């Protein structure tokens, strides 16, 4: 099942990069939960999470989501994702703003069910029962 989970995550990243929210019900479990790094927020359900993603991506004229790394952790997948935006709306800024996210993704019924962010790659790997 682990390679199948990696493929589900690939589809998730592609859908989020394209802001194709219509693809998410096939990828995300209806009870999906996103826990941001360091307890800075928890979002539940497809609608709530996509509104959150829209609020971030709508700030920029260009927005990207890319997975730099996907680690098969058996029943979970650890990702290192780069999120970037350029052209803050309302300004003429053309500089890219990047952030790196370290996530542990769990599955239920073949779909993404829980996503938890960590401050570092090492902490995400440890949470998934792996080490560097």
Low-confidence residue ranges: none
The overall average pLDDT, rounded, is 92
From the alpha carbons, calculate the radius of gyration and give it in angstroms: 15 Å
The portion of residues assigned to helices is 25-40%
Enumerate how many helices there are, as a single number: 4
Strand ordering within the main sheet: 2-1-6-5-4-3
Element string (H = helix, E = strand): HHEEHEEEEH
Shape: globular
Distance between the termini: 23 Å
- How many strand units? 6
**SSE-based structural type:** alpha+beta
Our estimate of the beta-strand percent is 35-45%
- Main beta-sheet annotation: 6 strands, mixed
Using brief descriptors, characterize the structure shown.
single chain; 132 residues; alpha+beta; 6-stranded mixed sheet; 4 helices
């Amino acid at each position: 099942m682990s390679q199948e989970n990696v493929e589900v995550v690939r589809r998730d990243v592609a859908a989020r990069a394209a802001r194709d929210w219509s693809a998410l019900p096939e990828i995300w479990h209806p009870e999906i939960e996103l826990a941001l790094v360091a307890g800075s927020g928890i979002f539940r359900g497809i609608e709530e999470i996509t509104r959150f993603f829209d609020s971030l991506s709508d700030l920029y004229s260009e927005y990207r989501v890319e997975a730099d790394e996907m680690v098969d952790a058996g029943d979970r997948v650890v990702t290192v994702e780069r999120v970037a935006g350029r052209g803050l709306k309302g300004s003429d800024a053309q500089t890219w703003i990047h952030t790196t996210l370290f996530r542990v993704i769990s599955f239920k019924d073949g779909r993404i069910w829980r996503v938890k962010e960590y401050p570092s790659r090492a902490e995400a790997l440890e949470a998934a029962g792996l080490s560097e």
